[in-house]
Design brief:
The protein has 6 helices and 3 strands. α1 (8-19) packs across α2 (27-34) and α1 crosses α5 (79-94). The protein is 52% helix and 10% strand. The termini are far apart. 24% of the residues are buried. The protein is globular and about 45 Å long. Strands 1-3-2 form a 3-stranded antiparallel beta sheet. It has a single domain, classed as Winged helix-like DNA-binding domain superfamily/Winged helix DNA-binding domain (Arc Repressor Mutant, subunit A). It is mainly α.
Length: 116
């Protein structure tokens, strides 16, 4: 799979990026969509970028300054990355029980008894 080890974390980040494939997402959006911690997603994003699966760019600093925050780094799957991500997620979901792990807690369906 292009030299990348497909861990649950990698698959969760790929799933978050595939949820909105035509949009650029910044780190906190990926954190929220994946259910992972910031310290987990950034090394994954760097590996994906190094493998050519993800393109990144820094936003223009002027709007960030006017909003009193640092500039954001945006990430988007490349064309090759999108195709590979779809394939990787399909393979991951084919493994028993992995689908539930890839669903962030806020998006998991409520099961009987009222808990996720």
């Amino acid at each position: 799979m292009g030299g990348l080890r497909m861990t649950v974390g990698v698959l969760a980040v790929l799933g978050a990026l595939l949820d909105r494939p035509d949009n650029e997402l910044y780190g906190l959006e990926i954190v929220c969509a994946s259910g992972l911690e910031p310290g987990t997603i950034y090394p994954i994003l760097q590996r994906l970028r190094g493998a050519g699966w993800v393109h990144d760019r820094w936003e223009d600093p002027a709007p960030a300054r006017s909003q009193g925050r640092p500039p954001r780094r945006y990430y988007r799957l490349t064309i090759e990355g999108r195709a590979r991500a779809v394939h990787a997620l399909q393979q991951g979901r084919d493994r028993s029980g992995l689908s539930r792990l890839l669903t962030p807690p806020s998006r998991r369906p409520i099961t009987e008894g009222g808990s996720a």
